[in-house]
Amino acid sequence: MSASAKSKKTKKVKNVRYVPYARGFKIPTKKDQVLALGLGVGNKLPIPKEYTDTTFSDVNPFTFFNNIQQPTSIDDWLAQYNEEGQTYSQYLKQCPWLSPRKVKGMHDNFVSSAKTLSGKYPGSKIYIVPVGEFNEEDYISFSNLLDYSKRFLCLPIATLPHFKLQQNGDKLYWVDEPSTKTTVRSSPRTRLTELTSRFHTNTGNFQVQISPLLTKLRQNIPRDAFCLIGLTRHDLYADESDLFVAGMAAGNHGVAVFSLNRYDPSFSFSTEFWYQRYKVPGYTAEERRHLILQRSCKLVVHEICHILGLDHCIFFDCCMNGSGHLAEDFRQPMHLCPVDLRKLQTLCGFNTVKRYEQLLEFYKKFKMESETDWVERRIAYLKQK
């Protein structure tokens, strides 16, 4: 997913039927897809059923998994960036979590001989924590986000009491309370730290600069954390020229923060001014809750996968594709392609069918019909003899 969407002045072009890929980008061939998986052609190894749905042939090795989509807008990710992609073999070499050496900053006991992430760090977990309060009008359930992340990643997921933010007029503050402090330097008093932000008087809208939030998260990361993911309903920006940023990770420090502000379908947002948004009529409360949950689930696992070492995917239509704008993000699938599924399976050690069954329970519960249908068919295929 794109970290930012910037305001740009471009000439309007009518009746554009073809948008080219970024200069230098090469569309992966069927052979490239199989080579990226690290099996099949050139490796003299059969493709396990969990990574495909047909017997390999030069014509069509995969049918459940679609090819990446041709750009339809000049703002689409692959219309802007010449992504090289990350093969499975490259992931094994690049991912620090698979190293026989302890990752810098990890405090948990380390088992160098273990093969999976939880085996190497048996007491650690991923933390997903609210930054600022969410109320019923936000239509966001953190318990559901935690549940989905656990089913998708097959790793321990936990949360903490929300990190408090306080608005005083046109200023926004991070609130450090004595009860949340664990260091010898903790103060018996509540402390307010002003966050860099911008405020629009006429609309009353805030945007919070992301760097100070990452700093505060670093100061509060638990000792048993693989990473700490902060989620906020506040809009975010990094540089003054930004229209907004969806979020940002400081992977070397194990922290990230992301905004769910623009995931509500009942609002549309200006492409020119950060503070302008417009009400979109016609959505029921149930529809809003459904779409916000679906979009938020995809955002959270996409970004955690980045922290776990997975780069953007170019080999298939995949949850790990990059996106240059919200519409592109929304139309991308929730499932992983074979290449990224193999990466995550190697890191986490899950049984693929059981993982799909756990996801199916979630999709059925929240009436995600297309995801339910896809996973049901996938499970049925994998269980065929």
From TrEMBL:
SUPFAM superfamilies given in the database record: Metalloproteases ('zincins'), catalytic domain
Pfam family, one: Peptidase_M54
CDD domains with a match to the protein in the record: Peptidase_M54
Superkingdom to which the source organism belongs: Eukaryota
Keywords: Hydrolase, Metal-binding, Metalloprotease, Protease, Zinc
UniProt keyword annotation of Zinc present: yes
Biological process per Gene Ontology, one example term: proteolysis
Gene Ontology terms, MF aspect: metal ion binding; metallopeptidase activity
Cofactor(s) the protein needs: Zn(2+)
Keyword Membrane: no
Gene3D superfamilies named among the record's database cross-references: Collagenase (Catalytic Domain) (3.40.390.10)
Name of the protein described by the UniProt record: Archaemetzincin-2
Species: Patella caerulea (Rayed Mediterranean limpet)
Lineage, broadest ranks: Eukaryota, Metazoa, Spiralia, Lophotrochozoa, Mollusca
